[in-house]
């Protein structure tokens, strides 16, 4: 099954404002940010499954963010042709009841969690994160935003800091977004390429084309996953864009789109 492992959707009440904030950061999102728009765009590209992420930026946001994630997971398909939704939740160590929240997510059938150090004020080497990682174990897949345009020492999402976390928790099932280094492609090549974690191909323009191709060349291909980063990009447009960017044959691009089967079934 073709899978897009990296998408974001918002509650209809806040989607317009959320997309406007992305535009203020210099992006030109083609999507409206609501799930129906994502599923329409994914479906016309042949994608049969999308993974939707939400991140609680503060402790106070954990419950509402996860309520929305659970509602997405329970959403009934309107047709057999509509892509399926896999929803990831979020926890934050500033939320005192995060252990109970992990249990609630697990019981609700949530398959994974999103960690976004830049937005959550939570570096990969922050000791507050370690008890969460211990409790997560292999229960959830972790989608980790990696990299930013800050100097490495001030970068909470540094590929080197993620490598440290991986070494501390080697059983964790981790997807490193943006080929392991948004705007940090050379560092990702040194820190993460060739490891046994998964890397997704979403939003690599600032990673650099040469660094992106080098990471792909060094990493096990079966551990590469297609991601569009919707609503920043339309999956139907991003598949051919990535195929050109990475110089993939049709067969190799199809394999990339199917690699998530080993992770999600």
Describe the structure in your own words.
With 265 residues, the chain is α/β, with parallel strands linked by helices. It contains twelve helices and eight strands. Strands 1-2-3-4-5-6-7-8 form an eight-stranded parallel β-sheet. Strand 6, helix 8 (185-191) and strand 7 (198-200) form a beta-alpha-beta unit. Helix 8 (185-191) runs parallel beside helix 9. It starts with a strand and ends with a helix. The mean pLDDT is 95.
Helix content: 40-55%
Tally of strands: 8
Shape assignment: globular
Uncertain ranges = none
Roughly how many Å is the radius of gyration? 17 Å
Strand line-up of the largest beta sheet:
1-2-3-4-5-6-7-8
Which sequence of SSEs, written as H and E, runs from N to C? EHHEHEHEHHEHEHEHEHHH
What's the total helix number? 12
Largest sheet: 8 strands, parallel
User: Residue-averaged pLDDT, rounded?
Assistant: 95
Structural class call reads alpha/beta
The N- to C-terminal Cα distance equals 9 Å
Approximate strand percentage: 5-15%
Topology:
Layout: E1 3-8, H1 15-24, H2 35-44, E2 49-53, H3 62-73, E3 84-89, H4 98-107, E4 112-115, H5 117-120, H6 129-136, E5 141-144, H7 159-168, E6 173-176, H8 185-191, E7 198-200, H9 209-218, E8 224-225, H10 235-246, H11 250-258, H12 261-264
Parallel strand pairs: 1-2, 2-3, 3-4, 4-5, 5-6, 6-7, 7-8
Helix pairs in contact: 8-9
What are the defining features of this structure?
eight-stranded parallel sheet, 265 residues
């Amino acid at each position: 099954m073709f899978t897009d492992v990296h998408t974001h959707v918002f509650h209809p009440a806040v989607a317009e404002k959320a997309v406007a904030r992305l535009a203020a950061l210099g992006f030109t999102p083609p999507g409206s940010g609501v799930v129906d728009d994502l599923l329409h765009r994914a479906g016309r590209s042949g994608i049969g499954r999308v993974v939707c992420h939400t991140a609680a930026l503060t402790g106070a946001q954990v419950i509402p963010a996860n309520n929305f994630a659970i509602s997405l997971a329970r959403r009934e398909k309107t047709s057999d042709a509509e892509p399926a939704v896999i929803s990831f939740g979020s926890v934050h160590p500033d939320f005192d009841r995060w252990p109970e929240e992990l249990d609630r997510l697990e019981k609700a059938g949530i398959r994974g969690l999103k960690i976004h150090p830049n937005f959550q004020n939570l570096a990969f080497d922050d000791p507050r994160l370690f008890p969460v990682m211990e409790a997560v174990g292999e229960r959830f897949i972790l989608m980790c935003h990696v990299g930013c345009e800050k100097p490495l020492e001030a970068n909470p999402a540094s590929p080197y800091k993620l490598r440290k976390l991986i070494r501390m928790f080697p059983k964790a099932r981790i997807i490193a977004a943006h080929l392991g280094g948004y705007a940090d492609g050379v560092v990702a090549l040194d820190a993460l390429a060739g490891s046994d974690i998964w890397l997704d191909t979403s939003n690599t323009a600032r990673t650099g084309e040469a660094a992106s191709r080098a990471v792909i060349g060094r990493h096990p291909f079966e551990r590469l996953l297609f991601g569009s980063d919707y609503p920043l990009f339309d999956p139907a447009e991003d598949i051919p864009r990535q195929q050109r960017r990475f110089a993939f044959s049709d067969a190799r691009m199809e394999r990339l789109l199917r690699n998530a089967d080993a992770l999600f079934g």
